[in-house]
Amino acid sequence: MLEMRPDCERCGADLPPSSPGAFICSFECTFCATCAEALDDLCPNCGGELMDRPTRAPKLLEQYPASSERKFKP
After folding, report:
1. Is domain 1-65 given the CATH code 3.40.50 in the classification?
2. What's the predicted TM-score (pTM) here?
3. DSSP 8-state code for residue 11
């Protein structure tokens, strides 16, 4: 199951799990749409392709909550 990380690792923007606009690589490195575009859809951590992160339905978030661990490092 995806962690659904709460923020962009590059700029720190909030990325709610039930909202579109987050991009992830196969290691779940997470970036906002603006940063993914600036990175040419390539993860700077592993070189993997950044893809749209699926959203999680609000009802399922109650049973399977998203991660609260922020990864942004200024």
Report:
1. no
2. 0.89
3. T
